[in-house]
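Changelog note: in this version the structure field was regenerated for every chain. One regenerated record is shown below for reference.
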Amino acid sequence: MKRNAASITWLALGLGIASGCATHSTPTTFNRTEVGAARSVEWGTIRGLRDVTIQNDSRGVATATGAVLGGIAGSTIGSGTRANTAGAVAGAAAGGAAGNAMARGSRPGVEITVELESGRTIAVTQDGSSQQFRVGDRVQVSSDGTTTRVTR
């Protein structure tokens, strides 16, 4: 019985970690769902650049996932109902704190202000740094209506 619980715990933990890892779209990285999807393309000129910090914003999901997985793992500790319950509560608290800490990570990004040939001016924030572009660069702006990317 304990062996089954341990196996389920490790499986759930692995799935939780895998699903909790956010994918980051860079101008040269595409998610599987984006492959083959039509994107509108416009050309423009960079008018401004600034380095920014991109924070992960899925803390609630990561905290809940960590709490559930911690509770499952903690419930296998001990040999009696009280010990299992205490382990589940302690595991949930520790797992929730760990999930919250993991979700608060950040990464470098760049905000690119582009004057499009159509006359509109847009700002796009994406992974990267201002060192990858220069004001005055001619760039391609592609969008699927949800994700917009600026590339040279």
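Spot check on this record: Strands lie at 40-55, 106-116, 121-127, 138-143, 148-151. The two ends are 58 Å apart (CA to CA).
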